[in-house]
Amino acid sequence: MGSETETEGTAIVVKLDDLLHARRMTLTELSERIGLTLANLSILKTGKAKAIRFSTLEAICRELDCQPGDLLGYQPQGDAG
Q: What is the CATH number of the domain that holds 65?
């Protein structure tokens, strides 16, 4: 049972795409502004990241003028949809 949960991913949802769209900013522009590689930012955007440093979270929030809760959400595994 435990391994099944691990392969399904996390219940944390990253809403970076929505924030970028609302701010009319590209992923490349954000990458340049916060000093994070485009590849690493893309991993975060697609929800494949396993962790995020507080310094990265702070930089994203600073550049997108948002709160951590605007960027991250919680969706229980049974609530797909």
A: 1.10.260.40
